[in-house]
UniProtKB/TrEMBL annotation:
Organism phylogeny: Bacteria, Bacillati, Actinomycetota, Actinomycetes, Micrococcales
Alphabetic keyword roster: Monooxygenase, Oxidoreductase
Alphabetical list of InterPro entries matching this protein: FAD-bd, FAD-dep_Monooxygenase_BioMet, FAD/NAD-bd_sf
Organism: Naasia aerilata
UniProt-recorded name of the protein: FAD-binding domain-containing protein
Positions of region (Disordered): 90-109
SUPFAM superfamilies: FAD/NAD(P)-binding domain (SSF51905)
Length: 109
C-alpha cells in the first residue's frame, strides 16, 4: 500500500504539493477549512520560475492551453492609466512564454 499524506490547505502550495506527492506514488487527501476559494481580482499570472515548476509538475502544457502569454507587465494607477511597462525576461527554454496569465473564471475550474 502506498503511503498516505494529509495536505492542509487547497491553495497553490497545497495543490502543487499534492501533484508532486502523487507523482511520487503517495496517496493524498486535501482538506480546506476556508469557504471555496475564489481569486481576488481578475486572475493570476505566473512568471518564469513558477512556470518552470509547472513543467516539473507535468501541468505546464495544460496551463498554456488555457492561459495567455505576456511579454510585458503594465503598471497601472487605480484608474487604469499605465504609468510604466516592464518587459519580462525569459529564463526558461527559448520557446517558453516569459509569463502567462489566466482569467479568474479559468482559475476556478
Amino acid at each position: 500500500m502506498a503511503g498516505r499524506v494529509l495536505i492542509v490547505g487547497s491553495g497553490p502550495a497545497g495543490l502543487a504539493s499534492a501533484i508532486a506527492l502523487t507523482h511520487a506514488g503517495l496517496q493524498c487527501e486535501i482538506v480546506e477549512v476556508s469557504p471555496p476559494s475564489r481569486p481576488a481580482g481578475i486572475g493570476i499570472a505566473l512568471q518564469s520560475a513558477p512556470l518552470r515548476a509547472a513543467k516539473r509538475l507535468g501541468i505546464f502544457k495544460q496551463l498554456l492551453e488555457v492561459g495567455r502569454p505576456h511579454h510585458v507587465i503594465d503598471m497601472c494607477r487605480p484608474d487604469g492609466t499605465i504609468v510604466a511597462t516592464v518587459p519580462q525576461l525569459n529564463v526558461n527554454e527559448p520557446d517558453d512564454p516569459r509569463s502567462s496569465g489566466w482569467r479568474a473564471r479559468v482559475c476556478t475550474r
